[in-house]
Amino acid sequence: MRRTVGMSAQQLEAFCGHWPGVTRDIKWETRLVFSVGGKMFAMTPIDGSDGGRLSCKADDARFLELTDQPGIMPAPYLARAGWISVVEPHRFTTAALENLIRDAYLLVRARLTKKVQAQLAPLSTKANKQ
Q1: Which CATH architecture group holds 9-121?
Q2: What is the structure's pLDDT at 71?
């Protein structure tokens, strides 16, 4: 059964793991990290620790808006690069978290070189609406 609030590592994998150019690996021993074109766009603890904290790249224009919300803060060590950390994912619907992840992917993908972008298939409209 699909959770309607929060997002587990397994849900994150199912949601974005198949997108064009996405790779996943474990960094810092416990973080499941998703990247596109070698650039990270989202991460979460693989074991659900840290309350299932979900971190992702955010648009600079929305960074302050997002971090002003209860349950979201600047991501430790990555805030200077525009990352947010959803420290209380249970406060947010799964759909809202999916929107943050999709936006992070598209933001990072758009900043890749034109050559790398051209090698990636477009993100399907189905993935855009999930």
Answers
A1: Alpha-Beta Complex (3.90)
A2: 96
